[in-house]
Write a structure and sequence with these properties.
heterodimer; A: mainly alpha; abc type-2 transporter like fold; 4-stranded mixed sheet; elongated; B: alpha/beta; Rossmann fold; 2 domains; 4-stranded antiparallel sheet; 9 helices
């Protein structure tokens, strides 16, 4: 029994030496998440600011001026007057001078006074459908405000007031940072393990250690342990950036988050092991690891696109993406303060996935070598 | 002649699909012997060694190494053999010392034992100036000797060397063989494959393999005599045909 531990430790130590000798890998391991986090966190912003808006003001009246000021005063829009021919307004979109065009009718004031409906026209460039939806919502909000201010309360049957839970300011960073943790952890873990085993197969050292009394199980455990630690440190870096740069709230228990993150890392490492049993070279292993983690995690985990809005068949596929379940966990703990009981289901699924993948990998690994 | 048998096989066979890589090989290798396996690439030498080391399961026949059955007792065998493959199989991105300590540890040696073996190895191979260098930066001849040293850290009675000198210059090969001679003096058995015919002359006994079968076996002088040739090279060509020897010189 004592010797067994010794052998696992020998493999761990060797793996650790590989890691510290190759500082470039280490550099990538820590720099990549930071770069990704900064890029995603700032670039993947769901809000748009200073949308160019062309104003065609036919009324030229005080009330119309008020409406225009309402728009100009918000940070969402960047206004300019258009006094070209109405027939040419399409060129405003085509030359990208405006994303939205507001036309105020000639009889604006008169109609307002009579408290009848006033048609104000908004033309929105919908070549980017998401942006168009956002712009429409901004316009609606401002118009509603304007109506309230001018006392133009047209018989509203309900008094709608919304309270937004867990992310009251609708900050995109809150939404993306947890997703990024899921993405980076799985990428690094799966990639590193699959490459480290493929490398030993490629260079022939695997054969050399297999003629020794070390058992395949011991090799796998010894190889995976250092990468659990490395991935974990990576996760810590990401969380620190999330907290101190993006000010993402840590509502729930940090300990629970750490424990469940380790579980997710183990799932990812098991995936990497699976891949390494199939991949003959480092190159192939790398390609397979990236394909198996990057796309499914971005597209099918709910990281960006809500799962509920996917076609039904695709929704079934999301159940095999580990990040789908981990996302419930991170978002739950960070934003909602969920406890372990509420996260039991996703945790159980991750545990099952790890158990299954690890078992298949170990069996396949031993089989491959005994053919 | 009542010598101890180190490696024994009886009709040992290995098939890959329909291809028979090793076809009914029967040999006995005695303690203290350097037993050479000659053959062109693809003659089945590596497959045979891999079966004896427990890396491959035989498809038929029997075999034992150090008295242990190769099908049942591979765990026991692994503790008693050293193996050096034709591919250079130390970790290129670890230093010489780190390699030695790793290989010592996976054989379950204690720290002091490893250190002691390391010292012996250093003086034997002349590794002194290289200890803290990355293994990839060593001259090929030194690497080869280091690989042999690592395969012998746990002091195994039997050594399997699969084309250990391929790609090494003649001078370094000579040095390597001197090391092998010193080793068998201590009662170890060496099982070596090669396709350098001059190396065959150094073996106590050689067997010539072709298409998975052993076609000739005996001491180098016996073989030369019975085939009336002056070198093993000529014996080999007479038996296998010159065009089949694939020498990577």
């Amino acid at each position: 029994m004592k010797k067994r531990h010794n052998r696992i430790f020998a493999v761990v130590r060797k793996e650790y030496l590989h890691i510290i000798h190759d500082y470039r890998t280490l550099f990538i391991v820590f720099l990549m998440p930071v770069a990704q986090l900064i890029i995603f966190g700032y670039a993947l912003n769901m809000e748009i600011q200073r949308v160019d808006m062309a104003v065609i003001d036919r009324a030229r009246s005080p009330k119309a001026q008020k409406l225009i000021e309402e728009f100009g005063g918000s940070s969402y829009f960047n206004l300019f007057y258009y006094d070209g021919r109405y027939a040419d307004i399409e060129t405003l979109f085509k030359t990208r001078r405006a994303k939205v065009i507001m036309t105020i009718p000639r009889d604006f004031d008169r109609r307002l006074l009579r408290r009848s409906m006033v048609p104000v026209q908004f033309l929105i460039d919908a070549s980017d459908a998401n942006a168009a939806t956002l712009i429409r919502n901004y316009c609606n909000q401002i118009i509603t405000n304007f109506n309230l201010k001018t006392g133009n309360r047209t018989a509203l049957p309900f008094d709608l007031r919304r309270t937004i839970y867990f992310n009251p300011n609708m900050k995109s960073a809150y939404f993306f940072v947890p997703g990024l943790i899921a993405l980076i952890l799985i990428m690094i873990s799966a990639l590193l393990t699959s490459v480290t085993i493929a490398r030993e197969k490629e260079t022939g050292t695997m054969e050399q250690i297999l003629v020794s009394p070390v058992r395949p199980r011991e090799i796998i455990i010894g190889k995976v342990l250092p990468y659990i630690l490395l991935s974990f440190m990576d996760g810590a870096v990401i969380l620190a950036i999330a907290k101190f740069v993006f000010q993402v709230p840590f509502t729930g228990s940090l300990l629970l988050l750490i424990l469940l993150s380790v579980l997710y890392i183990i799932t990812a490492l098991s995936m990497g092991l699976m891949i390494s049993t199939v991949a003959p070279t480092q190159q192939v292993a790398m390609m397979m690891a990236l394909t198996a983690t990057l796309l499914p995690t971005i597209m099918l985990s709910g990281l960006i696109f809500p799962i509920a809005s996917m076609p039904e068949i695709l929704q079934y596929f999301t159940y095999i993406v580990p990040a789908r379940f981990y996302l419930l966990i991170v978002r739950g703990i960070l934003l909602k303060g969920s406890g372990f009981v509420q996260l039991l289901a996703p945790s159980a699924i991750l545990a099952f996935m790890s158990f299954f993948l690890l078992n298949v990998a170990v069996r396949k690994f031993s089989l491959n070598l005994e053919k | 002649m009542n010598r101890q048998i180190s490696v024994y096989t009886d009709q040992l066979t290995r098939r890959f699909g329909k291809f028979v890589a090793v076809d009914g090989v029967s040999i006995s290798v005695y303690r203290g012997e350097i037993f050479g396996f000659l053959g062109a690439n693809g003659a089945g030498k590596t497959t045979l060694i891999r079966m004896l080391c427990g890396l491959l399961k035989p498809s038929g026949g029997e075999g034992s190494v150090a008295g242990f059955d190769i099908k049942e007792k591979s765990e026991q065998i692994k503790k008693r053999i050293g193996y050096m493959s034709q591919r250079f199989s130390l970790y290129a991105d670890l230093t010489v010392t780190e390699n030695i300590h790793f290989y010592g540890a996976i054989y379950g040696l204690a720290k002091e034992e490893i250190r002691q073996r390391e010292e012996e190895l250093v003086s034997q191979v002349g590794l002194d100036p290289y200890m803290n260098q990355m293994t990839k930066d060593l001259p090929l001849g030194i690497k080869q000797r280091l690989a042999l040293g690592c395969a012998m850290l746990h002091n195994p009675p039997i050594l399997f060397l699969d084309e250990p000198t391929s790609g090494v210059d003649p001078q370094a090969r000579r040095g390597f063989w001197n090391l092998l001679y010193e080793t068998v003096q201590t009662g170890k058995t060496i099982f070596v494959t090669t396709h350098y015919m001059d190396e065959a002359e150094y073996c106590h006994r050689v067997s010539i393999m072709d298409q998975g079968k052993i076609i000739e076996m005996g001491s180098p002088s016996q073989l030369k005599e019975s085939h009336k040739k002056s070198t093993i090279q000529d014996v080999f060509i007479a038996l296998v045909g010159g065009e089949k020897t694939d020498q990577k010189e």
